[in-house]
Amino acid sequence: MTDERSDLRTTFNQVALLYDQVRPGYPEALFDDVVSLSEITSDGRILEIGCGTGQATVPFARRGYRILCIELGENLATVAQKNLAAYPQVEVRNIAFEDWMTQENAFDLVISATAFHWLDPSIAYKKTAQALTSKGAIALFWNEHVYSDASNGFFEEVQELYQSLAP
Q1: Is residue 136 a contact partner of residue 110, using CB atoms and an 8 Å limit?
Q2: Is 86 exposed, middle or buried, given 0-12, 13-18 or 19+ CB atoms closer than 10 A?
Q3: pTM for the predicted model, two decimal places
Q4: Which residue in 40, 45, 59, 141 has its CB near the most CB atoms, within 10 A?
Q5: Given this structure, which CATH class describes domain 3-165?
Q6: Residue 78: count of CB within 10 angstroms of its CB
Q7: Beta-carbon count within 10 A of 50 CB
Q8: Are 40 and 63 in contact (CB under 8 A)?
Q9: 38-59 residue pLDDT tens
């Protein structure tokens, strides 16, 4: 992984509280679909890669799943621990997924919300497969910017502002 890519993947950790406040969430139907399509049972175990501040973790925790969250950013992990404190079946570990010692055949579902693309693909896919049970599933999901005529170039202009004010 290049130094620039490594630096970029830690950007959100520098502003963890702000990230927690403004990052768009995910629709509840998404979590219902992941549970249904993965066929995870009520006593299933989930591995979350890159939990951030726990935005995607909470809906699974509310459903009662045991969850191990792997989070690279120390500040993000701290906010996640606070946000998930009401769920004793959730554990947040502050470590890079690539450095985490794989628990083989231990998880019924692996999830990653807007984070999997930051991982080293030469490690991530194999390690994920090793962590899953033989009937396990993986769910990768993220938010997408919607472009339409109604946006009138807004997204492109905002990107220029980001680049000039906060490169």
Answers
A1: yes
A2: exposed
A3: 0.85
A4: 40
A5: alpha beta
A6: 17
A7: 24
A8: no
A9: 999 999 999 999 999 999 999 9
Angle (CA) 39 20 69, round 5°: 40
Beta bridge partners of 109: 46, 137
Query: Hey, is 134 helix, strand or coil?
Result: strand
Amino acid code (one letter) for 73: G
From the CA atom positions of the chain, what is the Rg in Å?
17
Place of tokens 């990052």: 23
- Tokens standing for 128? 């994920």
CB atoms within 10 A of CB 122: 10
**Residue 99: strand, helix, or coil:** coil
Q: Which residue has the tokens 């079946």?
A: 89
Count CB-CB contacts under 10 A for residue 85.
Answer: 10
pLDDT tens-digit series, residues 22-35 = 888 899 999 999 99
Three-state SS for 5?
Answer: helix
In Å, how far are 5, 6, 35, 48, 145 from 1, measured between CA atoms? Answer: 6, 7, 32, 21, 26
Residue type, 89: Q
Provide the CB-side half-sphere exposure for 61 (13 A, CA): 22
What backbone phi and psi angles, to 5 degrees, belong to 68?
A: -110, 120
- φ/ψ of residue 139, rounded to 5: -130, 110
Residue the block writes with tokens 């399509």: 37
